[in-house]
UniProtKB/TrEMBL annotation:
This is 4Fe-4S ferredoxin-type domain-containing protein. SUPFAM superfamilies: 4Fe-4S ferredoxins. Residues 265-294, 295-323 form the 4Fe-4S ferredoxin-type domain. Transmembrane segments: none annotated.
């Protein structure tokens, strides 16, 4: 539940999947609690709004599940983390004895792809998320942290809604695209490997998969059982604009980072679409967005290109701009 939004936009996991899984878990004797921490303030009011807009309130009502409204969190130590040794995770995760993660198959402006691994970022309380972007501003470090987080959160089972995914400028500014798959695994890293293959991306285009392979979290070989699938399942799945241009991909970090600072895509506010709500400014880890005369303004010199602003902008008023030289 990235944000409260109509499920038809393919921004969030479809409530039909939430309902079906909750019902089955309930029938198996479980006491089901549906929870998440979307972007923005982690408050009861924001949670209830998000659940309602995403269709989770109705889904929970229909199957007798409870919606989490506890907004506390606790720190769990993870000494084996590669880059991050502790995480502050929302309370329902600490209290459950079976954690089922329901994710969506989407492109992502920063990490290229978001699915099973990145879904666990929803366990971090809302406004603590930008802090991770400041601690790990480079996509490689940020993705390593996400792999650590997924290993720490260790979902018992993950199910991906790839019936209709999001292509283009995901995770919120893209367009719905029919894929027609539901993918499930007890290994979230392997699940992402299959999903990435299904949409015709390479592992280099999905940073969390690339890092999980390098770190040995994802098996080098994955296979599917169930329906026969011919890969890729969809052709020409649109990449996020930020990933159309990757002149430095594959270069070592010490060469790539300084070039990226100048050449890589950056967010631009379309003033005619901006409604001045300030959600981008609230989510900007670098605090480089100001609302002036009812419109958002970005000071690009401090921008770390995490694209949280674009992610949180409901009217899709933030586009990703690329230097002309690198878009040829
Ligand atoms: S750019 Fe988007 S999120 Fe930011 S103030 Fe404008 S409408 Fe709101
Ligand atoms: S302006 Fe946008 S992309 Fe830049 S640091 Fe802030 S949230 Fe991230």
């Amino acid at each position: 539940m990235l944000m409260g939004r109509n499920p038809d936009t393919a921004t969030t996991t479809h409530p039909a999947l939430v309902y079906a899984v909750s019902k089955l878990a309930s029938q198996a004797g479980g006491k089901v609690v549906i929870g998440d921490s979307p972007g923005g303030p982690y408050t009861r009011a924001m949670l209830e709004r998000g659940y309602r807009l995403c269709g989770f309130t109705d889904a929970a009502k229909s199957c007798g599940a409870t919606l989490n409204i506890d907004t506390t969190a606790k720190i769990i130590s993870f000494p084996q983390g590669n880059i991050c040794k502790a995480f502050n995770l929302i309370t329902p995760w600490h209290e459950t004895d079976c954690y089922i993660s329901l994710c969506k198959c989407k492109t992502h402006a920063m990490t290229g792809f978001t699915g099973a691994v990145k879904n666990n970022f929803g366990l971090i309380p809302g406004l603590e998320k930008p802090g991770f972007h400041m601690r790990y501003p480079d996509v490689e470090e940020f993705s390593t942290m996400l792999v650590d987080l997924c290993r720490c959160a260790s979902p018992d089972f993950t199910i991906m809604d790839a019936v209709v995914g999001m292509e283009g400028d995901g995770p919120s500014g893209g367009s719905p695209r029919q894929i027609g798959l539901t993918i499930a695994s007890d290994n979230p890293f392997a699940l992402d490997a299959i999903a990435v293959k299904a949409i015709g991306f390479t592992s280099d285009e999905a940073w969390t998969l690339k890092k999980s392979l390098e770190m040995g979290a994802c098996p080098a070989e994955t296979q599917t059982v169930g329906d026969d699938v011919i890969f890729p399942v969809v052709e020409n799945f649109k990449r996020a604009k930020s990933h159309d241009v990757t002149p430095t991909r594959g270069l070592p970090g010490f060469i790539r980072k300084p070039i990226d600072r100048i050449a890589q895509p950056h967010p631009v506010v379309m003033q005619d679409k901006c409604v001045g709500c300030g959600e981008c400014a609230m989510s900007c880890p670098a605090k480089t967005i100001k609302i002036i005369d009812g419109k958002a303004n970005i000071d690009r010199t401090k921008c770390i290109r995490c694209f949280c602003c674009q992610e949180m902008c409901r009217p899709k008023a933030i586009k990703i701009k690329t230097l002309r030289l690198f878009s040829l």
